[in-house]
Specification:
Rossmann fold, globular, 4 domains, 6-stranded mixed sheet, alpha+beta, binds beta-D-glucopyranose, 6-stranded antiparallel sheet, single chain, Jelly Rolls, TIM Barrel, 809 residues
């Protein structure tokens, strides 16, 4: 931790009330205003959590895209997650970001939760441990985190207004527990949620923010609002949220100044906020009260001689990437393989050398590597399964079926032009695809006040003859021309509902255009754009699809390929309309005709492997018809390379389920995400996830903790003394392997500790697992330890416990 002593009170005493209050609201979409008079830089924030998007929500500003949080949690590996955190810090420094708006610590209460992929687990202990490793990793790299969304933001429907009714015991033992853990790990920031809890919106929740978080837990960091969540002057100021984002408008400013002058809000509440912001800035390297600009922060590694140069970030961050650059591409690939979870395997995997593969599915060619919403980043490249396997195995590709609801972005190069009212060119920017997005910041040289139109230009060379489909995805007026002729001229109006959903999952308008193979077509898409409420938001996509031979022919072609090859690998995925921020899921089915495709391919070739490319549970009705099911989650930018590593046996799939996988939605014990009279009642109490499955008696498809790997293990012995448990396991297979030893204990036999071990064939390893004291405690107006004898059990999942011992607590 930084040991430089900064006299925050002295700095605060140099500021007048308007200056202090100005600091409490964003200067724009992603930053707080600088105060040069006290050496405070502009403090820059960015989403999170799979990469660091930076201030430019745009493909022109690429980022490393790691696997999604469900995948990170599936590694059950705090060391690996810590390294991922360090990489994110390196990315943040490269982009001039001081505060990473991550990790997401809400829970997998219902599999229908739209941001399920963005949360770690159904288990509060696993969530807390993985979350703490993430926080520690990022902050060790000198960048702040804001674990979010405090608290009970476990679903999306009516998220701005919904009131979650949850009992005190469930709140403490389940929903607050991961937050308590990361506060103990030393989080420098935290983000409050949009929703209310027990009648008070979280931004104004004095009891939970001032009382529990800042009081009881002694949190000395900075509480940032979720975007636009501060909706009141006094109540939010008294409620404990420190910073209202974004800005510059908002309910504080002049109105808060008046509230302070009139004695409705004490000035000490403003000073406390300023102190917390300054502390955050000092920790993240954005405060230089004496004017000094050190080469690196105290406690952070310095650049090696000849190492990476100082980062010239937008926020003027004077950090250097120290301790050697982390190779983001290599780490993304390593994390992906370690997260892949082998659910079933009749021995078909790993594939023998020389296996001829029929690779089938839309997602095999266009992997879905991340979920939708603010968690999106723009990677420089994405390795699809097809690209990853090509050159490493003999591959025949077939689409099989196309489940996409919206067309994919037109492949680039595409040029974006920014024009003023008179048609004068303000700037031009190359794009990798037809996806055009600038949120918060327009490209350099574009003055938002003058911007009147954004235009995409592409010279598209058709590869096949026939009716191509072009589409416009977005809201507002659009004019699409092909070789100068208008083919679409429309005003697209989004459906009413969550404004974020309208933007995250916008409507689409399609048009069919005949094209001839080998010919090039000049496409122009013009869209009047400007500032929305003072914020620059440009977001639309020019989509494209080749002519399709029709679904029946696609299926027949896939079956022919499956029959002709040694093994069929079907990559099945959810679509952007299924897993995203802004809305919840309606069901757990794989979209389109993918289930039908898998059953047909399995009938054509018994050696069919299904690769499930989804961030959260989907029903797998064909799971007993296929030779293996491998879950890749949303695997990040190196998807295909990691998949080839695992399928071909160069790497073992290391994942274990961080959430119980239902066979059918109808069996899941807790599902409700739709408010009734503005409320969602968590009436299941403390039992969500596997404890709820156990209580309900229903059998899931796969239990929490399940995952196979490529070797076998025996659980040999267990010894337990208090909260220290030692377990011996032996690798009984014929290749080296990695095992996640899980220990369950306490009144509800919940996860109390875990460790990752590796062993050579025949080798026995001992691991000592230190159990969480909370596992033996219940909340009854305070934590009470349940004293007496307890069973502790070690095993491979919540339902596969191999050894047990008794301890006295
Ligand atoms: C999301 C946050 C995110 C913020 C900024 C909100 O809509 O809920 O998770 O950090 O936007 O993009």
């Amino acid at each position: 931790m930084n040991t430089v002593l900064v006299d925050f009170d002295e700095l605060i005493s140099r500021l007048d009330l308007p200056a202090k209050i100005r600091l409490l609201t964003g200067a724009d979409m992603w930053s707080l205003p600088p105060l040069p008079e006290i050496g405070l830089d502009r403090l820059v924030m960015s989403d999170g959590p799979i990469g660091v998007r930076g201030e430019h929500w745009s493909a022109a500003d690429p980022s490393i895209a790691l696997p999604s949080p469900t995948a990170l949690a599936a590694t059950w590996d705090v060391e690996l997650v810590g390294r991922a955190g360090l990489l994110l810090a390196q990315e943040a420094r490269r982009k001039g970001v001081h505060v990473l708006l991550a990790p997401t610590l809400n829970l997998h209460r219902s599999p229908l939760g739209g941001r399920h992929f963005e949360c770690f687990s159904e288990d509060p202990y696993l969530t807390g441990e993985i979350g703490a490793a993430y926080v520690e990793g990022v902050q060790e790299g000198g960048v702040a985190t804001t674990p979010k969304h405090f608290v009970a933001n476990d679903f999306e429907t009516d998220r701005y207004t919904v009131d979650v009714r949850v009992g005190e015991r469930a709140l403490r033992e389940v929903y607050l527990r991961p937050f308590e853990r990361v506060v103990r790990a030393g989080a420098w920031g935290l983000m409050t949620a949009y929703n209310g809890v027990n009648g008070t919106t979280m931004t104004e929740h004095a009891e939970l923010v001032n009382g529990v978080l800042k009081g009881e837990w002694g949190f000395d960091g900075c509480v940032v609002s979720d975007w636009t969540a501060v909706r009141s002057t006094e109540a939010a100021a008294l409620g404990g949220t420190d910073v209202a984002m974004p800005g510059p408008s908002g309910p504080w400013g002049r109105r808060l100044e008046a509230a302070v002058r009139e004695g409705r809000v004490p000035e000490s509440a403003v000073d406390d906020r300023v102190r917390r912001i300054l502390r955050l800035a000092e920790r993240a390297g954005a405060l230089h009260p004496a004017g000094e600009r050190p080469a690196g922060p105290a406690g952070a590694p310095q650049a090696a001689p000849g190492g990476p140069a100082e980062v010239a970030g937008a926020g003027g961050i004077d950090r250097v990437a120290g301790g050697g650059e982390i190779d983001g591409v290599a780490l993304a690939r390593e994390v992906a393989a370690r997260a892949f979870t082998l659910l079933t395997n009749d021995g078909v995997l790993p594939l023998a050398p020389g296996t001829r593969i029929a690779l089938i599915g839309a997602a095999a060619r266009e992997a879905r590597v991340m979920g939708g919403g603010s968690a999106q980043v723009f990677p420089e490249h994405v390795v699809s399964p097809l690209a990853g396997l090509t050159g490493r195995a003999e591959v025949t590709y077939a689409l099989g079926t196309d489940p996409r609801v919206r067309l994919s972005p037109l492949p680039g190069p595409v040029t974006a032009q920014f024009l003023d009212r008179d048609g004068a060119l303000l700037a031009e920017q190359p794009l990798a695809t037809g996806e055009a997005r600038w949120i918060g910041h327009l490209p350099p040289g574009v003055d938002g006040a003058r911007l009147a139109e954004v235009r995409l230009l592409a010279a598209y060379r058709a590869e096949v003859s026939g009716e191509h489909e072009l589409s416009v995805i977005g809201a507002g007026a659009f004019r699409l021309t092909v070789n100068g002729e208008s083919v679409l001229d429309a005003e697209i109006v989004p459906e009413a509902g969550d404004p974020a959903a309208a933007f995250l999952s916008p409507p689409e308008r399609r048009v069919a255009v005949p094209m001839t193979a080998g010919q090039t077509y000049e496409l122009t898409l013009a869209h009047p754009s400007g500032r929305l409420g003072g914020l620059a938001i440009v977001s639309f996509t020019l989509g494209h699809a080749d002519p399709s031979p029709g679904e029946d022919e696609l299926l027949a072609e896939a079956m022919r390929a499956a029959t002709a090859c040694d093994v069929a690998i079907v990559v099945a995925a959810t679509t952007p309309e299924v897993e995203s921020e802004g809305f919840d899921r309606a069901d757990l089915r794989l979209p389109g005709r993918q289930d039908e495709l898998i059953s047909a391919v399995a009938a054509a070739n018994p050696r069919t492997v299904v690769v499930v490319n989804a961030g959260s549970p989907v029903e797998l009705p064909w799971r007993d018809e296929v030779a293996a099911v491998l879950l890749t989650w949303f695997p990040g930018q190196e998807a295909g390379s990691a998949l080839a590593d695992v399928l071909l046996g160069a790497a073992e799939p290391g994942g274990r389920l961080p959430t119980t996988w239902p066979a059918r939605l109808a069996d899941a014990p807790v599902t409700a995400v739709t408010p009734v009279d503005g409320r969602v009642v968590y009436d299941e109490g403390v039992d969500i996830g596997y404890p709820a499955w156990r209580r309900s008696g229903a059998e899931p498809a796969f239990w929490f903790g399940h995952g196979l790997g490529y070797t076998t293990w025996s659980y040999d012995s267990i010894a337990a003394e208090g909260t220290t448990v030692t377990v011996a396991v032996t690798n009984t297979g014929d290749r080296p392997g990695r095992e996640v030893v899980q220990v369950y204990a306490g009144p509800r036999r919940t996860l109390a500790g875990f460790d990752v071990v590796t062993a050579e064939p025949g080798q026995t390893v001992l691991t000592t697992v230190f159990l969480s004291e909370r596992a033996f405690q219940v909340w009854e107006d305070g934590w009470r330890t349940v004293e007496g004898e307890h069973t502790v059990a070690a095993g491979r999942s919540a339902a596969d416990l191999r050894l047990s011992a008794t301890v006295k607590i």
